[in-house]
Specification:
Number of helices: 24
Shape: elongated
Structural class: alpha+beta
Radius of gyration: 30 Å
Mean pLDDT: 85
Number of strands: 9
Distance between the termini: 31 Å
Strand content: 5-15%
Length: 745
């Protein structure tokens, strides 16, 4: 890595030109080709998928939406209202992408008309080519002070886009954190520039790649969310290590080489762990998640490449300006490195808060471990009641179009009007047809069933029964109803006949997808935990250190999911984030949080334990090694976590429930991981285990390949009085890989 970093530093303008040229080429391709994102609609092997097959339909079939209107001060079926609505519906029927419009005023059809509530609705069947905004504008063109019109349903579900002021604020907050840490505008700007360049070029690459790989449009948002956080952090680690080397007396190119050979190695290892976790999403067997994982993995790869190539070139261009004015003044005033290693600096370093904290953890490891476990358990408790599903209009933000639609529809037609279940029945003979009739007769008496209606015959031997629940699609009662129908009601009707009935429809499909993915979550957890264990075994040649790391990583993940449950399912803060009331957690969220947090937790574990391991190699004093490792990595881990908090939490205000869930979940999990798990729990457990933590069987030592994450150790002693940071936090680059010679006896 030192060779690559030095080459990039010497040929800085070539490197800058390559990155600029790549961006220009990708921009040209995107302008010329555009993107080809699509909704990846592969369904798991489930009952609802079989129902679609019997109907000869798919999720790409024309969708149905609804236009609802409510009158105040006049009857909904008055001649004036009928005339205005008829003209509006005729205009909508002529719009591109609209296949059919069914008016509630058709003769003999009163199901869409509730005169007691003065509310009526029309069904509108559309294709993917429809302009939803145009339909909505046309529908609301007849509104007046006595007539309110809203659109809703699957076809007219609102779409929101991420991006904007919230993300900009997050990046600016990260810049402020870096300014406080480095006290240098250039040093603070470098991680932001590197991270943004890596993310932008990767997203351009993903847009081009969408022509070759099936990707959903959400992949862009997921990529930017994950890429910005890790990209800025990776660059931070290298810049910090480079500055320490400069202050130790190294030349600019030597400092770049040292940073590349230590922090650069750690960044590559950390990035590969995140990429591996994201690509492992294929085990859940769903294309939309696999695509998101692939897009996010590409983004992480580009941020790693930017950190190990673009950043050294930028550091070479800036030279000593990456240091603050005070640091440059100290360098110019000092005649040699020895003169800078002053006793006062060493004394202040020993008295710093990071060293006092490290001493406290190592002096009382058992109480500190108990404290950390209590905090983690309290934060994780909500996960026990986590319910996975899809939010519906009833939980959308107050005042939104979809919420206003729900508030008009539900009083007149019930909360489950948009959660209709399709019972697709195979009736190959007369006895099975009779059994279906009996089932239809019994269905209205089933709890939580609001209405039952026979649908049009799909084809010979296949009939459809529409069952409308009394509750909305996201309600637990609706999920229980589907389960009750499948487990109890339908099997009883099928007994003794050849009748086969499958529960389908969008609501049942969402339930099946959630069940299928959650059934794969334990496998995914086991996969990432096992992967983390093996990587840490390779890194530290120990069995207990990887075990502590794997268990603590799982604890962080559970805490993140618990926080999501409290905030978004229980609704503790979902309204403050602009995504509406409490609702089930989308099935995408747990998988994404598990994958990303595994990688990030591994990062912090490597940065902390590698410094502890280095000290152990010098002293073979476990207590001293833990104390030194915590003291010298506390600041960089804390700063990285605060940056992650700023970037991830900014996505919490995106207005998209799924993006907000992932952003807030990751932000809180990262903070807990850094300040509770890495700064308290892990060092306390390592201290309690003692020297045995570094034991490694001889047979395993012979079989295990040697992997040097931090590269060759370079002893660097930087007195705290020469750094702008507080004296206690005289840290070492990315993984804390500087020698603490001033603190060794």
């Amino acid at each position: 890595m030192s060779v690559l970093a030095r080459w990039c530093a010497r040929h800085r303008f070539v490197v800058l030109g390559v990155w600029a040229g790549a961006a220009v080429v990708l921009i040209g391709l995107v302008v010329g080709m555009g993107s080809n994102f699509k909704t990846v609609a592969d369904l798991p092997n489930s009952e609802s998928a079989h129902a679609y097959t019997l109907l000869g339909a798919s999720t790409d079939s024309p969708q149905t939406g609804r236009i609802v209107w409510h009158t105040t001060g006049q009857a909904v079926d008055s001649a004036e209202v009928r005339g205005d609505v008829a003209r509006m519906l005729t205009t909508i029927a002529s719009l591109p992408g609209v296949e059919a419009v069914v008016s509630p005023y058709a003769a003999g059809d009163a199901s869409r008309l509730n005169t007691s509530q003065n509310t009526a609705y029309a069904d509108v069947t559309v294709t993917d080519d429809v302009d939803v905004a145009q339909v909505r504008q046309t529908a609301q063109s007849i509104e007046n002070d006595r007539l309110q019109v809203e659109t809703g349903g699957q076809a007219f579900a609102p779409t929101t886009t991420s991006g904007g002021i919230a993300e900009v604020v997050g990046i600016l907050a990260a810049l402020l954190v870096l300014l406080v840490m480095f006290r240098s505008a250039w040093a603070a700007a470098l991680p932001i520039i590197t991270g943004v360049v890596g993310v932008v070029t990767s997203l351009l690459f993903v847009m081009v790649g969408s022509h070759a790989v099936d990707l959903s449009s959400e992949s862009i948002t997921m990529g930017s969310l994950i890429g910005l956080g890790v990209g800025i952090d990776y660059a931070l680690f290298i810049v910090d290590r480079h500055r320490k080397a400069l202050m130790a007396g190294a030349s600019v190119h030597d400092a770049i080489g040292q940073a590349g050979n230590t922090s650069g190695r750690a960044v590559i290892f950390a990035g590969l762990t995140v990429i591996a976790a994201l690509l492992a999403m294929f085990v859940v067997g769903m294309g939309v998640l696999t695509g998101m994982g692939q897009a996010a993995a590409v983004t992480v790869l580009f941020t790693v490449l930017a950190a190990i190539t673009l950043l050294p070139a930028l550091l070479s261009v800036l030279g000593p300006r990456v240091l603050s004015r005070r640091q440059r003044r100290l360098l110019s005033d000092s005649s040699d490195v020895t003169a800078r290693k002053s006793a006062p600096g060493r004394a202040r370093s020993r008295r710093g808060p990071a060293r006092r904290w490290a001493a406290l953890v190592t002096r009382a490891p058992a109480p500190m471990a108990v404290l950390a476990l209590v905090v983690l358990a309290a934060l994780a408790v909500p996960v026990l009641s986590m319910r996975v599903g899809e939010a519906d209009a009833s939980s959308d933000p107050a005042g939104s179009t979809s919420r206003q639609y729900y508030e008009l529809m539900s009083p007149a037609f019930g909360g489950g009007i948009d959660a209709t279940l399709l019972l697709v029945a195979e009736t190959p003979d007369g006895s099975s047809a009779q059994a279906l009739d009996t089932l239809v007769t019994r269905l209205p008496s089933v709890p939580d069933v609001a209405s039952v209606a026979l649908g049009a015959t799909a084809r010979d031997g296949v009939q459809v029964v529409q069952v409308t629940p009394s509750s909305s699609s996201g309600a637990k009662a609706t999920v229980d109803l589907v389960d009750h129908l499948r487990r109890d009601v339908i099997p009883a009707a099928e007994a003794g006949s050849h009748l086969q009935v499958y529960v389908g429809g969008q609501t049942a499909t969402n339930i099946d997808i959630a069940d299928a993915l959650m059934s794969k979550l334990p496998l995914y957890l086991a996969l990432v935990a096992g992967l983390g264990f093996l990587l840490l075994v390779l890194a530290f040649r120990s069995l207990l250190v990887p075990l502590v790391g794997a268990v603590s990583n799982l604890a962080t993940i559970v805490v993140g999911l618990g926080a999501l449950t409290a905030i978004f399912q229980w609704g503790w803060a979902s309204n403050l984030l602009g995504v509406g009331d409490g609702a089930p957690i989308s099935y995408i969220v747990p998988i994404m949080v598990v994958g990303v947090m595994f990688g990030l937790s591994m990062d912090y574990q490597v940065f902390l334990v590698s410094r502890i391991r280095e000290e152990w190699a010098h002293t073979h004093d476990n207590t001293r090694s833990i104390r030194t490792g915590v003291a010298e990595t506390a600041k960089v881990i804390a700063t990285a976590a605060v940056i992650m908090l700023c970037v991830f939490s900014s996505f919490g205000f995106s207005g998209q429930r799924i993006v907000s869930c992932i952003g807030i979940g990751l932000a809180l999990a990262v903070v807990v991981d850094a300040f509770v798990v890495r700064m308290i729990l892990v060092p306390a457990l390592l201290r309690m285990i003692g020297d045995r933590v570094w034991a490694y069987p001889r047979w395993a030592d012979r079989l295990t390949p040697r992997l040097a994450i931090e590269g060759p150790a370079n002893k660097i002693d930087i007195p705290s009085d020469q750094m702008d940071a507080p004296p206690a936090d005289n840290l070492v680059g990315a993984a804390g890989h500087a020698s603490a010679a001033a603190d060794r006896r």
